[in-house]
Amino acid sequence: xxxxxxxxxxxxxxxxxxxxxxxxxxxxxxxxxxxxxxxxxxxxxxxxxxxxxxxxxxxxxxxxxxxxxxxxxxxxxxxxxxxxxxxxxxxxxxxxxxxxxxxxxxxxxxxxxxxxxxxxxxxxxxxxxxxxxxxxxxxxxxxxxxxxxxxxxxxxxxxxxxxxxxxxxxxxxxxxxxxxxxxxxxxxxxxxxxxxxxxxxxxxxxxxxxxxxxxxxxxxxxxxxxxxxxxxxxxxxxxxxxxxxxxxxxxxxxxxxxxxxxxxxxxxxxxx
Length: 272
Description:
Layout: E1 2-9, E2 16-22, E3 28-35, H1 36-41, E4 49-50, H2 52-75, H3 82-91, H4 96-108, H5 114-128, H6 133-142, H7 147-153, H8 159-175, H9 183-197, H10 201-207, H11 217-235, H12 241-254, H13 259-269
Antiparallel strand pairs: 1-2, 1-4, 2-3
Helix pairs in contact: 5-6, 5-7, 8-9, 8-10, 11-12, 12-13
């Protein structure tokens, strides 16, 4: 058995205490340090006798408390998933047994809740990004949220909100401003981009219904003239007549322009 001979407050950490223990020659030596919470829980005081098993317990308890405090600090910046906490503590080389205890305690204290995290994450993405539900679900799964909880959270991203975001992108990318690409190519590019952003084909298709009627014919003609003149400059040095017409027609059609506009352009540019 060893007695506590002194308890001193650490200079840089006022909530931590150094415990000094008696030695065999009736002197003293530094034994270990504990957090204030451990000091109070075990009623540590001068003169208290401790055996080796109790000293080991106190050291382990303090180590666990320090790791728990690290987790609390990690949580203080924003909500975290269970997986994020586990990964963080693992990087800090916290014992697996201690990680399990910390996760259990944080869960009981409702400081980690993957469903609540997923709900808040979805609402935040809806308000601050142009991402679709499939991409948001992938982000949640990457953070350790189960697919089941992620699906439940996506109720906060209703269809009407998805349509609203797609319509805004259509207006910004296609209907507003001018482009040197055909309306069809712009539409295909945006649809591909929306798929990459995580919107489903069904929602995209529904949002694009009627969009053809909003096409600006003047802008389409200007874009065709721009692309057509580029193709003429490219092929006129080597081709002429029917072959030149065919090359330009194929090039413009691949770029998404209608045969009606292509023929109009060729009639104006290649008058025989």
